[in-house]
Amino acid sequence: MNNVARASASGAITFAAAQLIDMRLTGRPSSDTPVRAVEKLIGHPVRGPLLRDVLAYGVQSSLAPSAAAAASLAGGRRTRRLGAAFLTPLAFVALVNPALGVSTWPWQWTAADWVRELTLKSALAIAVTAAL
Predict the structure, then answer these.
(1) 117: helix, coil or strand?
(2) How many helices (H) does the chain have, and how many strands (E)?
(3) Which end of the chain is more exposed for a tag (fewer CB within 10 A), N or C?
(4) Are residues 132 and 124 in contact, defined by beta-carbon separation less than 8 angstroms?
(5) Over pLDDT 90: what percentage of the chain?
(6) Is 2 helix (H, G, I), strand (E, B) or coil?
(7) pLDDT given at position 112
(8) CA gap 4, 72 in Å, rounded
(9) Nearest to 116 by CA among 52, 38, 55, 27
């Protein structure tokens, strides 16, 4: 397995685990934002709870390969790799989802939203960087 693939897998597993821990600790439900983004892009609703769950997991998991690719292109220094692995998924949730109209812009996030996003994306970035 090459380094980017290993980093992608490590990031996806860590991110999923961090989300599960967050949901258990805070009592929040899983997000439907990934599914709403896909629905917006394809122009019709995704029906069925199983399909929605699988799609949400798939979209969330795609953040890890993008973080791993960005980190691998950022150069040899760990700090650059960590920054790229952190900023890539954060930029996606902070810019792409609001631009699609499926979530709020970052300046409208609560303190809890910021803590959650920074914590989850940090876990993902650390796992990706450690695996490269």
Answers:
(1) helix
(2) 7, 0
(3) N
(4) no
(5) 86
(6) coil
(7) 93
(8) 7
(9) 27
